[in-house]
């Protein structure tokens, strides 16, 4: 059976970008057609400056939001990365497989390291080695498909390279996984800065829609989205990224096609109004289910405990085999 793995970092409140780019597909498609594992990747949240209490709170919130988004623990496995030690064990073998040059070439590393330095902070070594842990997350489960947004595609490509290299050196151990991207909204852009992706750790939230934003807040953010000085509505991501982003979001929420939708509008005002309502309606069930689940943290804890048990049982034999393959003496 096809196996699917993906994750989300508890570095902020989940955004519309996370939802349209990844989480919605996990719930609507992936969990129904494959053996799927979805993970709150809390160890990755430690690669940048962090506040322990906040990471803890956001980890639980992310798990709750995954369930609120429709992940069904009867259909898939939902768990927290740090609960399954196999990720860290295998991560070290991935560090022994990758070169420092290929880590330094990662766009996310370059961007986040530059931002960290610009703030006068130092760059954690784990930010550089992040893709090794991500490769371990994926490869530990014999994953075939990794449903992510476009920004993570480069890391999955590196994971493929590492899997192939490991298999070649030490014998067939890992499945070589592939990325799956959504048809539209693979990269939702910040509403205030439509040339940057909408990110959950952005300090300025005016351009970021959180899954838990009240409808009024969503409307205000969409109506204030930056467009351009043209008047006609045309789908042109290169020249007119703000409008293209709104059309992509509308298409993703309504199941339409962004170019075709452009033809249906003759003003930005009308387009924004429809985008705002489409987003509010898309997020409404998530917000409602979240309220119920957040009131029952012991249910969420139980899901995560069972999820971690299942994940551990799936990962352990493959990680043990990898340890043996590289020449480590098995513990008997
Ligand atoms: N703007 C986006 N558009 C489409 N997909 C997106 N994803 C993230 N942002 C967008 C996808 O959501 C999944 C979970 O993201 P993540 O938590 O693993 O990592 P991220 O890409 O680092 O997310 P953020 O929100 O931008 O966090 P920060 O600000 O910390 O970098 C992934 O599949 C991702 O592709």
Automatic annotation (TrEMBL):
<dbReference type="GO" id="GO:0005524">
    <property type="term" value="F:ATP binding"/>
</dbReference>
<feature type="binding site">
    <location>
        <begin position="9"/>
        <end position="11"/>
    </location>
    <ligand>
        <name>ATP</name>
    </ligand>
</feature>
<keyword id="KW-0030">Aminoacyl-tRNA synthetase</keyword>
<feature type="binding site">
    <location>
        <position position="188"/>
    </location>
    <ligand>
        <name>ATP</name>
    </ligand>
</feature>
<dbReference type="InterPro" id="IPR001412">
    <property type="entry name" value="aa-tRNA-synth_I_CS"/>
</dbReference>
<comment type="similarity">
    <text>Belongs to the class-I aminoacyl-tRNA synthetase family.</text>
</comment>
<comment type="subunit">
    <text>Homodimer.</text>
</comment>
<dbReference type="InterPro" id="IPR002306">
    <property type="entry name" value="Trp-tRNA-ligase"/>
</dbReference>
<feature type="short sequence motif" description="'HIGH' region">
    <location>
        <begin position="10"/>
        <end position="18"/>
    </location>
</feature>
<dbReference type="InterPro" id="IPR050203">
    <property type="entry name" value="Trp-tRNA_synthetase"/>
</dbReference>
<dbReference type="Pfam" id="PF00579">
    <property type="entry name" value="tRNA-synt_1b"/>
</dbReference>
<protein>
    <recommendedName>
        <fullName>Tryptophan--tRNA ligase</fullName>
        <ecNumber>6.1.1.2</ecNumber>
    </recommendedName>
</protein>
<feature type="binding site">
    <location>
        <begin position="149"/>
        <end position="151"/>
    </location>
    <ligand>
        <name>ATP</name>
    </ligand>
</feature>
<keyword id="KW-0067">ATP-binding</keyword>
<dbReference type="InterPro" id="IPR024109">
    <property type="entry name" value="Trp-tRNA-ligase_bac-type"/>
</dbReference>
<feature type="binding site">
    <location>
        <begin position="17"/>
        <end position="18"/>
    </location>
    <ligand>
        <name>ATP</name>
    </ligand>
</feature>
<dbReference type="GO" id="GO:0004830">
    <property type="term" value="F:tryptophan-tRNA ligase activity"/>
</dbReference>
<keyword id="KW-0436">Ligase</keyword>
<feature type="binding site">
    <location>
        <begin position="197"/>
        <end position="201"/>
    </location>
    <ligand>
        <name>ATP</name>
    </ligand>
</feature>
<dbReference type="InterPro" id="IPR014729">
    <property type="entry name" value="Rossmann-like_a/b/a_fold"/>
</dbReference>
<keyword id="KW-0648">Protein biosynthesis</keyword>
<dbReference type="InterPro" id="IPR002305">
    <property type="entry name" value="aa-tRNA-synth_Ic"/>
</dbReference>
<feature type="binding site">
    <location>
        <position position="137"/>
    </location>
    <ligand>
        <name>L-tryptophan</name>
    </ligand>
</feature>
<keyword id="KW-0963">Cytoplasm</keyword>
<feature type="short sequence motif" description="'KMSKS' region">
    <location>
        <begin position="197"/>
        <end position="201"/>
    </location>
</feature>
<dbReference type="GO" id="GO:0005829">
    <property type="term" value="C:cytosol"/>
</dbReference>
<comment type="function">
    <text>Catalyzes the attachment of tryptophan to tRNA(Trp).</text>
</comment>
<dbReference type="GO" id="GO:0006436">
    <property type="term" value="P:tryptophanyl-tRNA aminoacylation"/>
</dbReference>
<keyword id="KW-0547">Nucleotide-binding</keyword>
């Amino acid at each position: 059976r096809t196996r699917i793995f993906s994750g989300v970092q508890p570095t902020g409140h989940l955004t519309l970008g996370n939802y349209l780019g990844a989480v919605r597909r996990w719930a609507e498609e992936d969990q129904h057609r494959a053996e799927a594992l979805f993970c709150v990747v809390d160890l990755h949240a430690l690669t940048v400056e962090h506040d322990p209490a906040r990471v803890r709170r956001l980890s639980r919130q992310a798990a709750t939001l995954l369930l609120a988004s429709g992940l069904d623990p009867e259909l898939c496995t939902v768990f927290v990365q740090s609960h399954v030690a196999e990720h860290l064990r295998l991560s070290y073998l991935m560090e022994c497989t990758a070169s420092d040059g290929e880590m330094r070439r990662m766009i996310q590393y370059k961007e986040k390291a530059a931002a960290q330095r610009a703030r006068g902070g130092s760059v954690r070594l784990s930010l550089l080695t992040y893709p090794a842990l991500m490769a371990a997350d994926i490869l530990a489960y014999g994953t075939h498909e990794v449903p992510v947004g476009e920004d993570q595609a480069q890391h999955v490509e590196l994971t493929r390279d590492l899997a192939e290299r490991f298999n070649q050196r030490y014998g067939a151990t890992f499945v070589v996984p592939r990325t799956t991207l959504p048809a539209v909204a693979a990269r939702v852009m910040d509403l205030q800065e439509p040339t940057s992706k909408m990110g959950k750790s952005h300090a300025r939230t005016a351009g970021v829609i959180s899954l838990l934003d009240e409808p009024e807040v969503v409307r205000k953010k969409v109506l204030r989205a930056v467009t351009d000085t043209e008047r006609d509505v045309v789908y042109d991501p290169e020249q007119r990224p703000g409008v293209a982003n709104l059309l992509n979001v509308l298409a993703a929420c309504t199941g339409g096609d962004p170019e075709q939708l452009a033809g249906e509008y003759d003003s930005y005002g009308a387009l924004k109004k429809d985008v705002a309502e489409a987003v509010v309606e898309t997020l409404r069930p998530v917000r409602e289910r979240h309220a119920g689940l957040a009131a029952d943290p012991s249910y969420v804890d139980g899901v995560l405990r069972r999820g971690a048990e299942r994940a551990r049982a799936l990962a352990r034999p493959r990680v043990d085999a990898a340890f043996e393959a590289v020449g480590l003496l098995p513990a008997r």
